[in-house]
Amino acid sequence: MPNPLENRHIALGVTGSIACYKSVDLASKLTQAGALVDVLMTPEATKFLAPLTFRSITHRPVITDIFAPESELSINHVAVAERADVVIVAPATANTIAKLAHGLADDPVTTTVLATRAPVIVAPAMDANMYENAATQQNVAALQGRGYIIAGPASGRLASGLIGLGRMLETPDLLGCIKVVLGRDGDLANRKVVVSAGGTQEPIDPVRVIANHSTGKMGYALAEAARDRGADVSLVTTPTALEDPYGVNVIKVRTALEMRSALLHQCSNADALIMAAAVADWRPTETADHKLKKGDSDTWSIDLVKNPDILAEISGEGLIKVGFAAESEDLIANAQSKLVSKGLHLIVANNITAPDSGFGTDTNRVTLVDREGRTTELPLLTKYEVGHEILDRVAKVLA
Ligand code: PMT
Residue 77 has what pLDDT? Predict the structure, then answer.
């Protein structure tokens, strides 16, 4: 399932908050990803944004009035509610949340939520005082108690100019939340998958580190793919420029030793460990506690000590282990020998010589090598698609 949003019906309820400008981006990203987005707007939302904005983006009618003759809801007011795979109310004002909590249905958004059997996501957006008010908190708790997913709000600058809790989540998080909901009965549901990402940093002194070119993209894509198939995902990662994926338990580390202890802890109850991280094989024997001075010498050497081989060391009853091998020569032979020495089920031989593959790219060229000796060379794929290819194999072994 390389694209969890393709041809899925998403009902997007937009209510009267300035945050509805962000819903335009959400509708756009959902549509670009192949989803069929039905937008429903409250009368207050139409004061912030013209329905034409959403219609131009989704290429579908926008429902603004339950009684309008041309409204699909006026013919069958549950049509959108019935065909939705997910209903998301974003932004959800305090007023709409209160109406939902009390089962009111007097506009297209509340009517659809009341009429649907699909999972409902509510993304609050309001002033911090309104959100923290006991009335709103009780309404939110009531919705949660009924199984609604409350996505956010985040803390930050609010329309009032104040800083506080009440900002609607950003598009990547809302997309992530929709994918979590769509994938919750996937083939990795009730499975724990641990993924490592990024390049470890081994400190020489407070300024310098031994590092490598890994950006974390491969590991993050894998974590998102596992999440989208219903897995409970822990991502052990070194510092990267990437945003934490929604719905993933992110554990930040720097060195190989820190990664080792985080992974040992996470794997104690895991079903699979997939290591996309580029772990330094060596670290400085000592880390200076002050910045080392250049001195007069033209050369400088550092004593190194071997890091533990994390993947070889970790084992567990029924734990599926997948490794990566970034190679610039003898790709398959080197990968095969790592598969054996680390006791893996599968190794992903990663060609790092092509410009569209390996470190920092959004795509990858890999060959999967399994413990039965089978090799499968995959075409150029996005890292997210590579993630799914790996997870197809993991899910098969787990099944
Ligand atoms: O992060 P990106 O920019 O997207 O780049 C992705 C990537 C190129 C880093 C990734 O696709 C990749 O190939 N990762 C493996 C890097 C590597 O070469 O690993 P290795 O051959 O040194 O180690 C083999 C396996 O053992 C790896 O799964 C590694 O995580 C693991 N290992 C290595 C050393 C060590 N001390 N402990 C380990 O567990």
Answer: 60
Chain-centre distance for alpha carbon 7: 20
Q: Is the pLDDT of residue 69 over 70?
A: no
**Nearest one of 279, 156, 270, 102 to 110, comparing CA atoms:** 102
Q: pLDDT band for position 328 (50/70/90)?
A: confident
List, in order of start, the domains of the chain with CATH numbers: 9-182 (3.40.50.1950), 192-398 (3.40.50.10300)
CA distance 71 to 19: 25
Q: What end-to-end distance do the CA atoms of the chain give, in Å?
A: 17
- Count other Cβ atoms within 10 Å, centred on residue 145: 9
Please give the C-alpha separations between residue 168 and each of 95, 100, 120, 300, 357, in angstroms, as whole numbers.
15, 18, 16, 52, 36
Buried b (16+ CB within 10 A) or exposed e, 105-135: bebbbbbbbbbbebbbbbbbbbbbebbeeee
Instruction: Give the model confidence (pLDDT) of 149-186 as tens digits.
Output: 999 999 998 888 888 999 999 999 999 999 999 999 99
CB neighbours of 146 closer than 8 A, spacing ≥ 6? Answer: none
Task: Give the CA angle between residues 390, 395, 396 to the nearest 5°.
Answer: 100
Peptide bond into 91 cis (omega under 30): yes
For residues 211 and 277, is the Cβ–Cβ distance under 8 A? no
Distance 267 CA to ligand 1 centre (A): 18
pLDDT tens-digit readout, 84-107? 999 999 999 999 999 999 999 999
Give all strands (DSSP E) within 110-174, no chain letters.
120-124, 149-150, 154-157, 163-167
Which residue lies with its CA nearest to atom 24 of ligand 1? 325
Of 324, 342, 353, best ligand 1 pocket probe by most atoms within 8 Å of the beta carbon: 324
Ligand 1 pocket test: pick from 210, 275, 332 the residue with the most ligand atoms within 8 Å of its Cβ: 275
Q: Roughly what angle, to the nearest 10 degrees, separates helices 94-101 and 134-145? A: 50
Q: Is 338 in the pocket of ligand 1 (CB under 6 A)?
A: yes
Cα separation, 35 vs 27, whole angstroms: 9
Q: Which atom of ligand 1 sits closest to the CA of residue 338?
A: 24
Whether residue 212 lies in the annotated active site = yes
Residue 76 contacts by C-beta under 8 Å, 6 or more apart in sequence?
none
What pTM did the predictor assign?
0.95
Mean per-residue pLDDT over the chain, rounded: 95
